[in-house]
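Take a minute with the sequence and fold tokens given here and flag any structure token that looks odd. Thanks in advance.
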Amino acid sequence: MEDAFITLSFISEGIYKDKGSRFLSFAYPVKTETDVKKHLDTIAKRYYDAAHRCYAYILGAPETTYRSYDDGEPNHSAGDPILGQIRSKGLTDSLVVVVRYFGGTKLGVGGLMNAYKTAASLALEANEVKKVLFKKSVRVQFDYADTAEVMRVISQYSMEISCQRFTDTCDWSLDCLAREAPTAAERLQLIPSVQLTWQTTDPDSLDPEA
């Protein structure tokens, strides 16, 4: 299993011009299709008068969901070149939108493919990629008497305590590298009072048992 995936750090923009047409490009880090829809809705409202609003995105690591959309341009002349740029940089959890204002001169399919590819590339080049570690979150409940032993496991596997709740027992949420999660879980379960529950609220996490 790989330890990390590559995604975008922030929102970035680019612009490309060809024969009077303007291609405004935007690159976004996203985690879910809800994030994608939010950005697309914003673009639709802001650039309501544009001729075309084409896009592509990839979600999941490894890639599990992707889509490209031509928005009225000839088939595969817009969305696919945008998608190709995202893939060429090894990115996931990334959305690129290219807005076209028609300049009066047709570019042909080849010209369109080059324009959308170039515009997408410019937005991506204006960004910075970041490496995100695959992590798994687990809820650990245990008796106070076993705190020292739990802490030893946390230290051994460089786990992070993301949440602590104290009632009659200790109730903690821990994050660790996904590839080490099964071994860390086995070690924790050797402690008599420990009860484990894998958490799936983090869309970036991978289930080490999958």
Observations:
- Residues 201-210 have pLDDT under 50 and may be disordered.
- DSSP finds five helices and eleven strands in the chain.
